[in-house]
Write a structure and sequence with these properties.
alpha/beta; Rossmann fold; six-stranded mixed β-sheet; globular
């Protein structure tokens, strides 16, 4: 069974003033209405699943991106010097956080990690502003399953001389990712668990 909202509330989610509780509830609703689907799917990890979360339906949505920027910025440690993520899923997320950070007078640059080194020019894996050696970078992700995708970004950043101690995801599917990061010595936080999304989704289809 799938649920697709034809219309959905679009409150005035401000870059600086709307309270985070309202922003968080709005983002959860968008994820349920636009990103969450039930059926028979094969994930990027190769696992089969009875549901799928297409995060880009929300991370590339104008109000969704603004909500994501507000929420994730609030979760970053104060000493964060940049946010980064593995292309393609994290690209709009790190961009949203960086733009919102400028509005909140806490400018934080964004870095994008290529899956393969660029085939020309500097042949770099990392795109974005150059940071000082040891700069503290937080890796962002849309959906975490096993944790392997974001770990590729962590490894590339560390190879470049940056300090990475934390991963933050919009959604934790609760299929081993958190435990994987813990074993790797990384802190992990998620805005929502799959349980949060499924409970809200049930409210939509039963209303």
């Amino acid at each position: 069974m799938t649920y697709q909202a034809e219309t959905y509330a679009q409150p005035n989610i401000s870059a600086t003033t709307t309270d985070l509780v309202t922003v968080s509830q709005y983002l959860l609703d968008l994820l349920c209405q636009l990103a969450y689907k039930e059926g028979d799917f094969v994930l990027s990890s190769g696992q089969r699943s009875s549901y799928y979360i297409n995060g880009k339906q929300v991370t590339l949505h104008p109000q969704g991106a603004l909500a994501i920027g507000r929420i994730l910025l609030s979760m970053l440690p104060l000493e964060t010097q940049a946010v980064a993520g593995l292309t393609l899923g994290a690209d709009p997320i790190v961009s949203a956080v960086s733009v919102v950070s400028a509005y909140e007078n806490r400018p934080i640059p964004a870095l994008i990690i290529r899956k393969e080194a660029k085939g020309h020019g500097t042949r770099a894996y990392i795109e974005g502003p150059s940071l000082p050696e040891g700069a503290k970078v937080v890796v962002l992700e849309d959906v975490v399953t096993t944790g392997q995708s974001a770990m590729k970004a962590v490894d590339r950043l560390r190879e470049a001389g940056y300090t990475v101690n934390e991963v933050i995801s919009l959604v934790d599917r609760q299929q081993g990712g958190a435990e994987f990061y813990q074993q790797a010595g990384l802190q992990f936080k998620a805005v929502y668990t799959i349980k949060d999304i499924q409970e809200r989704y049930r409210q939509f289809i039963n209303s």
